[in-house]
Amino acid sequence: MALPAPLRRSLGRMFESAIRANERAIADLAVRAANGHAHPKLCDLGCGDGRLTAEIAEKVGARDVVVVETHSPNVDSVRAKGFAVEQSDLNARLSLPADTFDIVISNQVIEHLYDTDVFLGELFRITKPGGTAIVSTENAASWHNIASLLVGWQPFSSTNITGKEGGVGNPLAFFSGQEGAIFAMQHHRILALRALVELLRLHGFTIAATRGAGYYPLPAALGNVDRTHAHFIIVSAQKPVG
User: Fold this and answer.
1) What is the CATH number of domain 16-139+188-238?
2) What interhelical angle do 116-126 and 193-202 show, nearest 10?
3) pTM of the model as a whole
4) Does 3 score more than 70 pLDDT?
């Protein structure tokens, strides 16, 4: 069942506001992580079209930027931006060298992966000792996901689970009634903030900061006040030295 056009537009505006707030939080944490590095080495795992990568690279003064991307059209896009590109499956070991990057970012990627341990292990391996990894994902415990469960619907963050159709199990899902997602773009694992923090710790990181973005139907900035129930959660984690 497709959403009425006015409702879709309203939801779309709230969603875009949350996305922008999430990206601002990632960029802010990257700037903090770059403190003391004139030209930090930057890596983006699952960079999409590279727009956010380019924005962060400019903000932190990164000249050496490497991205990992799976989707071929995105690979062409980021190559056109001048970044070094590895086209690789983020469920598998990467060819990137260990202990290399001052800052590694990964925005809205971990929920698409089926081997979280391999991904986080590689995230730790390629981050330089003393460097920072910044991971953002949708929040399993967001208020809109909780509300969906209370009425017996699929959580918003877990409705793109088939290639047959989008918005499965939730008539208010933004992509309800639209074309389904290919396997690599489906959500396979949704985490709450505590789970993301604990997973990063289990893989050797020390938590530096957390952020939140999106708080439907209230302003997106409130997600950073109540991070536990925000739409997007962001964790900045450091790789210990020695």
Assistant:
1) 3.40.50.150
2) 60
3) 0.94
4) no
